[in-house]
Design goal:
Radius of gyration: 21 Å
Number of helices: 3
Number of strands: 14
Order of helices and strands: EEEHEEHEEEEEEEEEH
Helix content: 10-25%
Structural class: mainly beta
CATH class of one domain: Alpha Beta
Strand content: over 45%
CATH architecture of one domain: 2-Layer Sandwich
CATH topology of one domain: Alpha-D-Glucose-1,6-Bisphosphate, Chain A, domain 4
Length: about 210
């Protein structure tokens, strides 16, 4: 499900409760909208020459080649990688106080693994949160002239989030979102929800392959 984030970019208070002598506040700040990352480059090489060099260069990376169609100039690859490197999902801050000491837990919402406390209406809870990233990339080679080739990179991101709460307040939550390089998507279930978008690092890495052949 692809969605756009139209709500204000300031931090939104998700939880403010009092339980015994413990108080807690958790805030989530969505990522600021950014322009779509560059995904096209023109190379001074013929399409056939670039193709012969680019395919083995891709094979030396973490990409898995799924489909090659030289006649149409299409290369389709799949990938998995560090969500914190390739995604901006905003930032989470959880503050917990027992009345004498205050503890703050702050981290990027794209972090692969994180464990942190929150205070809810039924008491102090510990959240175990994980994010994983995979997806597919289409590389398209097009003739501009006999000696010029345009390379276009289209990425589809698939992000999985799993949340566990102890002591259990509800069942484990596993949600999946997907979006393109120029888009963003929001996980369901939260208010306002964790929103993710591309950092542009993956597109940059793919385009950089044309300098290595």
């Amino acid at each position: 499900m692809v969605m756009s984030m139209s709500k204000p970019m300031n931090a939104v208070v998700l939880t403010i409760v009092v339980w015994g002598c413990a108080t807690g506040a958790a805030t989530y700040t969505p990522p600021a909208p950014v322009p779509a990352p560059p995904n096209t480059i023109t190379i001074e090489r013929s399409r056939s020459d670039l193709w012969r060099a680019l395919v083995p260069a891709i094979g030396r990376t973490f990409f898995v080649i799924n489909n090659l169609d030289q006649s149409s100039g299409l290369i389709n690859v799949s990938f998995s990688g560090s969500p914190e490197t390739y995604l901006d999902c905003g930032r989470i801050v959880s503050n917990v106080s027992d009345g004498t000491e205050k503890h703050t837990y702050a981290f990027p919402a794209a972090r692969a693994q994180e464990r942190y406390p929150i205070v809810t209406g039924t008491g102090l809870k510990v959240v175990e949160r994980s994010i994983s990233l995979e997806g597919r990339v289409n590389l398209i080679l097009e003739d501009v002239s006999a000696t010029l080739t345009r390379l276009t990179v289209n990425v589809r991101y698939v992000v999985t989030r799993q949340i566990r709460v102890a002591p259990p307040a509800f069942g484990d939550a596993i949600d999946v979102i997907s979006f393109s390089s120029s888009g963003r998507a929001t996980f369901p279930g939260d208010d306002p929800g964790t929103t993710c978008q591309a950092t542009g690092a993956l597109e940059k890495e793919v385009l950089a392959l044309v300098s290595s052949p």
